[in-house]
Amino acid sequence: MTSPRSRPTVFDVARSAQVSIATVSRVLNGRAVADQALVARVRSAARELGYRPNTVARDFRHGVTRTIGVIVPDLANPFFPDVVKGLADDVTEGDHRLLIADCGEDPDEELRLVGELSGRCDGIVLCSPRMSAENLAAVAGWGIPLVCTNRELDGLPFGTVGVDSAIGMAQAVEHLAALGHRDIGYLAGPTTSWSDRGRRAGLHSAAEQCGVSVSVTLAGSTSDAGYQALPDLLRRNVTAVLAFNDLVALGALARLRELGLDVPTALSVVGFDDLPVAAFLGPPLTTVIVPKHELGRRAGAMLRQLLVDGAIARQERLPSSLVVRESTGPPRPRPAG
Amino acid sequence: MTIHHVAQRARVSASTVSRAFTTPEMVRRDTRERVLRVADEVGYRPNRAARGLITGKTANIGLIVPDLGNPLFPAVLKGAQARAQQADHAVFLADTDENADLEVNLIKAMAKQVDGIVLCSSRMSDKQRRAVESLTPLTFVYRKVADVPIVLVDNADGMRQAVEHLAALGHRRAAYLAGPQASWSNRERRRGLRSASRATGVDVIELGPFAPRFEAGLQAADLVLATDVTAVLAYNDLIALGVLNRLADRGVAVPEQMSVIGFDGIDFAAMCTPPLTTVLIPKEAAGRAAVELLLDWLDQKSLGHTAGAQRTLGTQLIVRSSTAAPPRVSAGSNGRAARGARQLKGD
Predict the structure, then answer these.
(1) pLDDT, tens digit, for every residue of A53-63?
(2) N or C terminus of chain A with fewer C-beta within 10 Å?
(3) Beta-bridge partner residues of B234
(4) Which of A7, A76, A281 sits opposite B78 (nearest CB)?
(5) Are residues B119 and B203 in the same domain?
(6) CA of A234 to nearest chain B CA: how many angstroms apart?
(7) Which residues of chain A have a CB within 8 Å of the CB of B57?
(8) Which domain holds residue A113?
């Protein structure tokens, strides 16, 4: 994987001038910075390092295209269409149009798409961006109005709207513990996913509090990932499985059906995201409600505000909450002896 | 000489070759120099990429769909993207939310941003279509239009397979849950139903039209139970899934008391309870073919050719567990037709 090391990045300038990346971005984009000494330091560092902004990506025009761009990792996961629809509702209210791109879980493609979209849009929403912190910093240096959903990074001049997964995850663990489960498993999501990190954090912290032990197996974000990863968890003698998302849970359910294991009698299963379809497939899935539509809406509103008054980036958090359906129950009785 | 020849010789990926031309600062200097040297050696000329160096943009393709929430369309996108990527294009999407007026506006806006647009399941009227057809090259998936490249699937034949399946099981009366009136696929499925109904002697009554979503299936199930049919053919899998859900709520056993068939063959159809009998239509293949036809057309356009290429892909009934022999007594009210139900007759 090639990294943009032959040219200095915003990171390098920030480090050299000992300021935040947000400050570097503001100075180099000619936005107001009160401290003139700071401005001088940043400009001098940029000059010394030979930093030049990406001229291709800087070909955007403020408020001329009336288009907002949005990049998602995978439209085949119904989670993202729901977020996009929420964003579309807000964008339409602002009399803009939405241009959507799917990077196929590829961080390099995601970066390239930002470049492609920036010449065609007034601003961009990155949904659950997979690219490295380094590349996000480089993108910050391009000066395009940008909002991220479900990815938070300190020091970067982006607005972010994120779902607090830890709350819902904790409720799920407490629910399982209350049913009597003591050994639970987690089918983990992509390692590039900020949401997965939040879910794991909530999971481990709640498990410790409830006296429940956790086994983790890497799965992914698709139903196929759940289908493939489930047997590994079964080998670790868990009585309940929490999945990174509903698709992974559905894949696990399919595998369990094939193995002749009934849910919830033989094993309890919990999903995440509350995809509408999850309530329709058997058995109705216990899951964590994530306000997907609202996530999109809030991102749109934040970006619009950014376009209007160049507001300083802030972080918004939306809550998640457990909904109990029919895929969870008491653990199967342990064999005697 | 293609980008892949250069990639292979320079021992990098195709996308790295592309970046070496369009966003050189994203590529390591030694890699970039090697790529440019190899390209020069083999005589590779990246026309679209060269344009990108001048204008800051590379050529891309638009894809407009009625509803990203229907897994059918992300699947078409996957194929479209795979083929577009081979030509080093990105695909930009827009969602019309089943609204033909919005579709027109999106085409007008997108026409300035892309080199051509693939319209999937277009809902525009012919009049609206004619108003935008000269703005940018348009190709259609799942809709028959003259004089432009189109990719179709054999809906009528798929319906024939479905009806013959029901007839073989012993069904004599079935309901068709119709989709949007502006949908070509709906017209074709009805056409297939009419002719299969005549051929097999299975009476089909039509209910609807319904929006092509889960929620509509919930509503449709109640209407079905107010008739005396023993089987349901839904416009698509989403409606069928809604029907399954509502029938379960109402204590009607599928397939013992009612058979249900969907259409499209989305992944979720295999995961529901019971797994849904449906008609599989090509999705990724359709997206791939559409982009290929569009790219061919774009290449020819500069030579003054017009294109009217048409590809029709086959459909296949997938029998799962939602269909079985009819019960001796129908689950719904005997003899009473639902309000709004009508016999599916020939036009």
Answers:
(1) 654 344 444 56
(2) C
(3) B177
(4) A76
(5) no
(6) 21
(7) 59, 116, 119-120
(8) 67-163+292-318
